[in-house]
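Exercise: predict the fold of this chain.
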Amino acid sequence: GSVIGRINQDRETGVAGILGTFPTAVPIRIHVKDDALGTEETFGAQIAYDEDFLPVLSGSIAYAAMSRVSDSLGSSTARIRFAIRTNAVDSGVFERRNMYYSAADVGQVAVTELLQAMNMIVTNPQEESDILDLDVDVELTGGRQTAVLVSAVPDKLVVKPGDTVTFKTKIRPYRKPEETLSIPYRVPKAQPAGTLNLDIRGGGFVPVNPLALLAQAGLEIPDDEEKFKSTAEKLDDLAAQGQNNEIIIAPGAAPAPSSEKEMKKRMRAAAKASARAAEREEPKRVTLLGDPKKKDEREKFYAPYVIENVIHATLKVEE
């Protein structure tokens, strides 16, 4: 029926409301397409703006829409895109895409980042954020659309800062023949001479947290900076996270030294690199975690599969 007012009290003895005054609501549009069944449908709903229920209900409605269109969400792959119109970000719209596979229930996995983003917005500690509407698009594919990285061979092993290297990368899709991809990677201009260790990984694989390395080494862990970030910064971090169907090439940690001799050799090389850098640059304040404002020197390549592993490669950098 038509909305004629809103409930403002709900007690054991009864409920009370106000006629002619309408609740603040967030309209939601969800479009779901199932490639296996050849069906698609669009759903609409309105959720009252309540900080406790809005994130959970938005995810539940998206999941219910997927369940309504698809006859099974098990052993399926989902591509999801959602856009939230909100004043929590300067652009006015927060948008995120990703790809998921789950043998049990892909619907539950697919809405995790939606729940995360909605929760960040409604729990904004700086001010109350407005959510104007939510738009969700989901494409479901029956079967397992995943792949593992087999090898990544660079077209040259010796490089200079700023050079572009093309990696001939082989992937093995699930129960399909191997495929070969050419992925370019640009060596950082500030990369010091020596060995450059690279991780070639799926976007869903998060590199080792520097905090964990510090704790493992027995060093004092600095204060957690996450709690000082604004909601806009947290949303930017979420948007910048790798997608599961991305192949990311980025500098990685060096493998553990196999002997004490190898350890001393690395320490001497690090000392020489540090001395060369000190000669070229003005003294500046440094932290164990590096410059938080500096972006990762990484390259992304989109694949039609969820990438499930990480492999490693090395380059020799000359001045």
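Check your answer against the key: Residues 146-204+242-317 form one domain.
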